[in-house]
Specification:
This protein is α/β, with parallel strands linked by helices. It has two domains: 145 residues, NAD(P)-binding Rossmann-like Domain (Rossmann fold); 176 residues, Dihydrodipicolinate Reductase, domain 2. It has nine helices and 15 strands. It has a nine-stranded mixed β-sheet. The protein is globular and about 65 Å long. Pfam families: GFO_IDH_MocA (PF01408), GFO_IDH_MocA_C (PF02894). InterPro entries: Gfo/Idh/MocA-like_OxRdtase_C (IPR004104), Gfo/Idh/MocA-like_OxRdtase_N (IPR000683), Gfo/Idh/MocA_Oxidoreductases (IPR051450), NAD(P)-bd_dom_sf (IPR036291).
Length: 347
């Protein structure tokens, strides 16, 4: 029996014992959710820098992954900086510990491939923390797309803009923020990226890029565009999917989803234009959604995966594919050309 299938039996009916490494800006939210998650007990936390946000009151802050393993955990959440993901994830894998790794899976493709392969071979549950997938607006959008509400999908456009997050020191805006848009776009369309073309710039004085504009194409033919920066004086998180029957617009800041119908107005066209598919403004509906915290939903999904139902997690293999897309974006911006995603592993 695999480690996934035997997880519930192995705990003897007791709550799963969880550990958290990394108590920074994101780690504090993981701690809060783990402490309130039904069927899970947060038994230990670790961070070599201590607990700057007071997220782990009542816990001894351990120094590293080895100390978490020694505490006897069933699974771990990794919320350390991206450059440390590989070493920490592999330490947990060697100890037979299931892992939820904050996005992106790893710093580069080779590291992501290594992590994904090790977890798969060990039969361990491995997932990547792409929190946007659990936003109620995007969950409902994906359901409606799968049901065919828009018919053929033509284009997916995202905008992710806001102020600079002071917590980021090791990567630029592509690996920190654009990775969300690349992942959610492939997910809602159920198709990976084929090619990307990108332009980036540096305006904040940091070594890494802080603005990027990406045009892409998915394997199913859908065209995409993504505007991402952390130099805007306002916060914007939108995803627009346009298809033959209209458009779905998700505002993930407010967890709102609306539908703009294509009224398909009849037009009188001469014969040479008869095949043209016109578009006209139709009704607009904003859906009523049950709004739950995306991170709480993500944690519940990972708990369920450790207990045998892995249907709602972002797998490490999916995380690897997003790392490939991210690397293609960076290479395109550097070299000034369109880059096929499947070729980014080449020197």
């Amino acid at each position: 029996m695999s480690a996934t299938g035997s997880a519930t039996a192995a705990t003897g009916g007791r709550p799963l014992r969880a550990g958290l490494i990394g108590l920074g800006m994101m780690g504090r939210h993981h701690a809060r959710n783990l402490r309130s998650l039904e069927g899970v007990e947060l038994v230990a936390v670790a961070d070599p820098q201590g607990d700057p946000h007071g997220a782990a009151a009542g816990y001894d802050v351990l120094p590293d992954a080895a100390a978490l393993i020694a505490a006897g955990i069933d699974y771990a959440v990794i919320a350390v900086p991206t450059q440390f993901h590989r070493d920490v994830a592999l330490a947990f894998a060697e100890a037979g510990v299931h892992c939820l790794v904050e996005k992106p899976l790893a710093f580069d493709i080779d590291e992501a491939e290594e992590i994904a392969t090790v977890y798969e071979r060990a039969g361990l549950v491995g997932a990547v923390g792409y929190i946007e997938r659990y936003n109620p607006a995007l969950q409902e959008m994906r359901r409606r797309l799968a049901d065919g509400q828009l018919g053929e999908i033509y284009q997916i456009s995202t905008r992710r803009q806001g102020g600079f997050p002071a917590r980021i020191a090791d990567v630029g805006v592509v690996k920190d923020l654009a990775t969300h848009d690349l992942d959610l776009t492939a997910w809602v369309a159920d198709s990976d990226f084929s090619d990307v073309a990108a332009f980036s710039t540096r305006r904040s004085g940091r070594e890494d890029e802080d603005m990027v504009s990406v045009s892409g194409r998915l394997r199913n033919g859908t065209v995409t565009s993504h505007l991402v920066n952390w130099l805007s004086p306002f916060k914007e998180r939108t995803t627009v999917v346009t298809g033959e029957k209209g458009a779905l617009v998700a505002d993930t800041v407010n967890a709102d989803l609306s539908f703009h119908a294509n009224a398909e107005a009849t037009t009188n066209l001469w014969e040479s234009m008869a095949s043209f598919r016109g578009v006209s403004e139709g009704d607009m509906v904003r859906y009523s959604l049950r709004r739950t915290e995306p991170l709480a939903t993500e944690h519940a999904a990972f708990r369920d995966a450790v207990n045998g139902d892995a249907s709602n997690i972002v797998t490490m293999r999916e995380g690897l594919q997003t790392v490939r897309a991210v690397e293609a974006v960076l290479r395109s911006a550097q070299e000034g050309r369109m880059v096929p995603v499947d070729q980014v592993h080449l020197p």
